[in-house]
Amino acid sequence: MVQFTFLNYLTPQAAFFFVSYMEKTFIILKPDAVKNRHTGDIIARIEKEGFTILGLKMLHLTKEQAEKFYAVHKERPFYADLCKYMTSGPVVVAALAANNAVQKWRDLIGATDPAQAAPNTIRKLYAESKEANAVHGSDSADNAKIEIAFFFAESELVGR
Ligand code: UDP
Ligand code: MG
Known about the structure:
It contains 8 helices and 4 strands. With about 160 residues, the chain is an alpha+beta fold.
């Protein structure tokens, strides 16, 4: 069932005005989700849950992009494997807006390890493993801004 927010009742121009003041988050549909053909189902879920899509594109990360994006984890034992996995196939990146977008998305995707994720969360439904866990989500509104700018030019984002 589609969730109608008040944005649905506004003109596109007015909706974009409100969206520009909403919290944003950055997400990735990781290589396992794309390879397993879950892209459409996950995007449908994003819309049903009431997020507004501000930017969306498919790309194949380079080694340099993956290493830079996950640099915060570079001392962790899983870093090298994670970067290799993230460059193993195409991904979809997106910028989303919603009230409380960062936490709302993290609640929707569930725990990092799908074995620990709550029922009906995206990771529970679609992830392959703790590493190949279907989706990324920013961990704070400040990091969301940095991550959105890492992947999108201003001209690729609507409602900014
Ligand atoms: N990851 C992994 N092994 C671990 C922890 C994390 O392979 O023990 C991977 C997994 O793909 C995860 C990403 O590294 O999504 C980033 O880890 P983080 O702790 O930030 O988890 P997230 O914020 O994605 O839930
Ligand atoms: Mg994280």
